[in-house]
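Pilot study result, target chain (394 residues):
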Amino acid sequence: MLTKTKIDLKSKNQKDQKYEIEMDDFGPEKMIEVYDPAIGMRGFLVIDNTVLGLGKGGMRMAPNVTKQEVYRLARVMTWKNALAGIDFGGAKSGIIWNGGTDEEKKAYVQSFARAIEPFIPKQYIAAPDVGTGEREMQWFVEAINEFDGATGKPGTFCKGFYKTKHCGIPHEVGSTGYGVAQSTKAAIEFIGKDIKDITVAIHGFGNVGSFAFKFLKDMGARVIAVADVDTAFIDQKGLSSDLFDLTKSNKSLKEYKGNKIETMKPEDLLLLDVDVLIPASVTDVINEDNKEGVRAKMIVEGGNIPMRDNIEEELHEKGVLIIPDFVANSGGVLSSYAEHKGYSIQEMFRLLDEKMGNNTKKVLKYSVKNDLSPRRAGLKLAKEIIKNNSNNKS
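Predicted structure:
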């Protein structure tokens, strides 16, 4: 057995703030930091665990990306892929991106792709994440001339012909948000309630949050509040479905021109007294500063790592049912798996129908049976899957 080792690092984005990356029996297997002095591109790739298959995880672009964050996200992907029952391992990548023109962004993406090309696609495949989408995935694979180097590519971007034609499945079709909605519905059913009788608040109105909003509305849930980075709307009767139309033209909530809606501070949405809170925005949005004010009865983690594990355990002890990120938002990686296997969009959604609800209820049943928080239950199940596969290969 490996002993646990800690690496003490400093991030240029978090001056004088030390953090630790833990090495344990599961990984990380590789941590790569790249830099292109010609344009100033700096990025990270963490391949955490490949027992079940090649490392799979999104590529994010944001000004505050750190190696620690990429490591934490890669570890989440290890558990997520194991519980999803697919032959992917866990990995993640990130590029420090302070904004700029499309031309500059493309240069960053393609520089990063070339820098990590030795690991693609046998050890890592990229996918959309915060700050990236189908366009960036096409740029990525074009830079290294490797169609299978990323998933989440445009649906019109294909290889092969006729019956052998293999096309992208962009996350813009809503796979992650659909999975979040299905996971929410399964959790509500598990506690004996009807989705039509619950209130929902969604923090984050990007690809995940907006589609979770759409699909939950379609299921009959009463979504009373949504927020993006600078605007939040609330209506106790339930928000109108036409808010989703903003996403079709890449508009923010502040650009909404429909009926007048009561506004609130985006951060205050996290403290609403609702049946279900869906944090679908950034890392650590629930933290030491606001955790005492959380009043939601259930939290479904639409975004990756919306809070640290210790905070999640504290809320669990207070009676909050929390569906962890590696269970609730695995629709994205299931979509990636479908694209990797050459499925159609319709086949991808059928895969989500098959997996999301069953996986959520499986974790909750194990949680109750063994008196564990859902995160601890899910982790135990995921670790058992990886260990069993590791033993079978040895």
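One observation from the pilot: Residues 132 and 159 are 22 Å apart (CA to CA). A full batch analysis is planned for the follow-on phase.
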